[in-house]
Amino acid sequence: MNIPLASIPKTIEQAVRSISRFFAWANLLLIGVIILQVILRKVFSNGQIALEELQWHLYATAVMFGTAYAQITNQHVRVDLFYQRFSAKTKALVEVLGLGLLAVPFVIIVILHSYDFAYEAWRVNESSSAPSGLPFRWIIKGVIPVSFSLLLLSLVAQILRQIAVLGGSHGSE
Q1: How confident is the model over 22-66, as pLDDT tens digits?
Q2: Angle value at C-alpha 87, between 82 and 92, nearest 5 degrees
Q3: 131, HSE (Cβ side, Cα atoms, 13 Å)
Q4: pLDDT along the chain (173 residues), means of 10
């Protein structure tokens, strides 16, 4: 079975988009939790620590998975002082070098260190230090290696797309 090289980035990008869109629903849930917490606090003078922590967890989840989506859709922050004037091949070369030499090694380091971080939290069944806080702190810590792995996939897809541009086939639809 011979898979065309151009279809690999497209497949990765579709997977990243789907997973990121699923986790984007955390934002809607976050809004609901914030509204509930405000009503409990302001109307009933009964704010809940668990809801406060849940807000941070939902926000972190949305942001962490949103980074891969931002990379795939090219909506991340970029300093375009010179970049905008470059030719397509020069832009592709800058992308390959920048992502390959800077972003990918950083993301791999985060993934490697965060697995131990999340595993240790799971091993000791870490929970909030607040008496009425959330249990299972390992779940939010587990978001780090999973979301950064998704970001790594999006970086690989982008590098493959840019290599295709450098090779003369413009597979960057």
Answers
A1: 999 999 999 999 999 999 999 998 989 999 999 999 999 999 999
A2: 90
A3: 0
A4: 71 90 92 95 90 94 93 80 84 92 96 94 91 89 95 95 82 46
User: What angle in degrees, to the nearest 10, is found between the helix axes of 104-123 and 137-166?
Assistant: 160
Which 3 state secondary structure label does DSSP give 117?
A: helix
Q: 23: closest CA among 154, 143, 115? A: 143
State residue 1's pLDDT score.
Answer: 55
Instruction: Take residue 88 and report the two structure tokens written for it.
Output: 């397509």
What b/e readout covers 58-95, taking b as 16+ CB neighbours within 10 angstroms?
A: bebbbebbbbbbbbbeeeeeeeeeeeeeeeeeebbbeb
Q: What whole-number distance in Å separates Cα of residue 123 and Cα of residue 28?
A: 31
Asked if 140 and 118 touch (Cβ cutoff 8 Å), the reply is no
